[in-house]
Amino acid sequence: MITKAVLYATIALSTALLLDVLPASAQAQSLPASGAATQSAQAKLAAATAAQNAGRKKYPVTREDIVVAMPVDQAHLTVAHASRVWRKGVRTFVAGNTPAPDVLVQEGKLHNETWSYYPDDSPLRSLYGGDTRAALVPYLAHDSFGDSYKWLLYGDDDTVWFMESVMKLLQDFDPDLPYFITDHMWWASTPGRASHPNPEAPRCLPCDFDDSKFDHSLKPFNAPKGCPCTAQLICETDERGIFNQYCDVPKAPMSTYSMHGGAGGIISVGMLRAVSLDYMEKCVKSLYSTGGDAFISICTWQAGYAMTDPGYSFFHPDVNMFDPGPEDRMGNMMKLVRALDHRCDDVCQHQLTNMLTLHVRSRVFPQLEDAAQFIKAIIGMYDVFMENKRIKAAQAVANLVEADSTAAAAAVAAEAAALQADVQALSVAEVEAATTAATGDMTSSQVSASKQTALATAQQAIQARAVADATDAAAAVALQHAAAAALAKKQSHRRLQGSA
Known about the structure:
Layout: H1 2-19, H2 24-27, H3 36-52, E1 66-71, H4 77-82, E2 91-96, H5 102-109, E3 113-117, H6 131-145, E4 151-154, E5 159-161, H7 163-170, E6 180-181, E7 185-188, H8 231-236, E8 256-259, E9 265-268, H9 269-274, H10 277-285, H11 292-302, H12 329-340, H13 346-353, E10 357-359, H14 368-439, H15 444-499
Parallel strand pairs: 1-2, 1-4, 2-3
Antiparallel strand pairs: 4-9, 5-10, 6-9, 7-8
């Protein structure tokens, strides 16, 4: 009976550790090995976790596994510096249009930044002079960092990344495979009609993505599943007659195929191993197109690879994980305002929870300092939003533990009473009969001694069972109290921060 209580207590402790709401002293403790009940609870928890992840292997990701590749120019340093609020604990490769002064290099080291430079294009082969640099910065970063990371976040200097959601998503992908992940793409199969995010843009779904629970009437086309996603796979499964017999990538001005640089994309270390900096640089410099995002998309295709949609937004046209809106910075900020004011409905919560990036579009602000302040503000609001979700989840688990511990304690008491009654009945009837049959010609004093021995053995068994049950119950209650105390401490700390 106590098994279920200890199971929920185990869940409470696991949740608290994952959400970082228990103090260090509590984190150092684990469930006491107090009998078969605890072992059974741990086994059930492991089985539940395995069942939840069945069919899709998990690849743990931390901030140390992620790097950022950011192209900048000297005029945008204010915006680049503001992004440090979301880049905490993440290594960043910054490629400027001129060599960085030593003071900037030294300052950057304090923020895990590696500064480099790649000159502007001359003459222009696209809309902006920095487009070649923008296309090559992931490969320049890989050349600098080597294989010391798993995932690279690629976007503009005013692309904001929401790291908790990013790490959650990446647990479903093997970083050693060649991946370029995004759900926000430019696309047009005819001249002059390009738009973004265009759900019709050719792309793959992850090979192990479970689409059985989604409404297939919402999907824009039959996307192939591939790990990795290759240009050949997309052409071979093309039902819309988009590609020619040579599987050529659509190019401007006749058509458009490109990830959106402001929305960003996530590139695996496997992709950056598969396609070299030398190849990419030669390819990019051979092209004329619209921008750095088009350069890298075309050259990735010509190297044999294509974009992978995470899958979720493919069946949810109202939700883009990469820059929802698009470029609706104020709309997404207002969603966060409603969430913090407890006015965010299920659709609103749904959109915020799945948001990976936001393109701030710093060029439209009156001053770049205004864009920098916006970046800091929206990250602050997002952090509070996620903290509230963690506290709410931990509180729900704590409430569940409390309710179940009360029921389990009553069940333990009832079970103990029933066992005691069984032993009493045994002592009055069955022990006497069994002893008489077994003793035969024993004297009355010998029979009495035999009965006493049998009763003593039974009582010892009951006491041992009661001790084990009490220990399990104490473990559940102790964990319940630890979770409640941690929540109270966390909430008190936040109130003190708010008053300060």
